[in-house]
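$ fold --in a.seq
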Amino acid sequence: MRRLITAAALLLAALSVAGSSTAEAAEGAKPPKQHWSFQGVFGTFDRASLQRGFQVYKEVCAACHAVNMLYYRDLMMIGYQDDDVKAIAAQAKTMDGPNDAGEMFERSGRPSDKFVRPFANDNAARASNNGALPVDLSMVVKARVGGPDYVYGLLTGYAQPPAEVKLMEGMNYNLYFPGRQIAMASPLNADGITYQDGTKATVEQMARDVTTFLTWASEPTLEIRKQTGVKVMLFLLIFAGIIYAAKRKVWAAVH
């Protein structure tokens, strides 16, 4: 009887471990916790990291992924000057019109334009990516469980698959992607870009910078919201003190 109970316990333990491994593979491993300057009540964005992250987005991600909720003028919020924004926008080409002849025409971008999409429509995007539709990155940080930790983990989580894992055709192994098989190949390669500020472009550095930029893209007013919240709390504390002092004054003669 003892042997039977022991065998049953071992079987249950094995099934539990196997189930846990299967669930983890299906959901993807939990990415490690990272420290971000923008976290916490008083957190702010690192402007240098934001600008490096924009450079990574522009030179690497923008070939496939849009950030359709951003305007070029928004870049002034991360430290670019008016002339810089005009130059960045002018590098993009966008369709406008109709003109006096009733025809659409192509022109250089302006600060008032939204970031130009890499593809004219979803069908064109799928046709260029073997049927996969690259996601819009405007809200990707807020849309994913784990937020910036997940995005950073995804970008640094590419690896060779274990011997027992058979990848489907056209898929890549990623530790943190649900199912661990992702259509997007690793977008970042060491020294794949040359940072304008001279920072060494390791995979980890580029992943951290572009994650910071995408976090800002998902909520450009995050710092304003936090500052407003702190001001409101200070006002309420002072107001509560004034109310308390007034109450003490009004009821001072009442015992």
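$ fold --in b.seq
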Amino acid sequence: MVSSLLFFFSMVAAGGAAAAVYRPFPPLLGLSGATSSPILGAAAGGALAAILQQIWKRLFPIWFQENAETRFVNSFFVGLGATLIGIVFYFALGIAFPAGGAVRIVQGFLLIGSTLVGLRIGFALDSPIWKTSEGAHLRARAGRNRTSIGKLLDTSIIIDGRIGGLLTTGFIEGEILVPEFVLAELQNIADSSNSLRRRKGRRGLDILNEMMQDDSVSIRVLSKDYPSIREVDRKLIRLAKDEGATLVTTDFNLNRVAQVEGVSILNVNELANAVRPRFIPGEGISVEVIDRGEEINQGIGYLDDGTMVVIENGRRHIGRTIKATVKSTLQTEAGRMLFAEPTSGPTRWER
């Protein structure tokens, strides 16, 4: 409040002082020009201060909204162009009409009005209007060669740990991008009071450190953040759009939201499901029964790739590795499940 009043009275004093020196206003109400000009100048300065304060109140919260940077840049360029047009008309009026107080007032309103209109029009534009030919060339080249697109990592894929192996084998190419807000979330997980979350967070930090130490991996930490966006997933989607990057994740919900937003996604779980070996009914497998199932006499085991195997009449084999025959398969969003039964005789692959 105090700063607003100081700004207001400063503008009033500045307007009165400038008008007293230049005397742009004609004598009014029987007052001489030396008297009326400071009064009208002070009033103009106060009006301008009130307008600027209202503009500031509107712009300050907008600065933290989504896409604010692009809006302000557009506003600057369009406002600059409108100001140049206003200057042309300013001098045109001065040439067309004889000098006088009324002409100067019209010139001032024309110059200020054109600038404000340009700023308002530019701020209403969401898409950037300043695009270089180099950026267009890079986007076109990226469209022809998808492997050069950067890969943006989220917290889940770093904790998962498989990203390191994928980078080593060369199945994922391009520059690896890690945002600072993901590192902050990873550190919070590593400092958690929950022991399981703490171990996951520390494992993620170790894996990330190993990737940074690997000279064959091109990795870059991005400092760009979006203070107006609170959720990390929304920040990742926004950053992927801004950088033109592919989002790498194991988060099912983030995968679905990013697809709706039109962001390119690499889901490592979907990749793992795609490369798992296919089994057909009657095929033989070797599996260790490690636990009982939900139904009577069922046993549960897992293959080396993590595929869950439900074994009918397998409860009595808990703790042993047995040969089983696949009866059917079930594909779920979480992965593939096999239903099998212990093999009583030699299987097809043993004959």
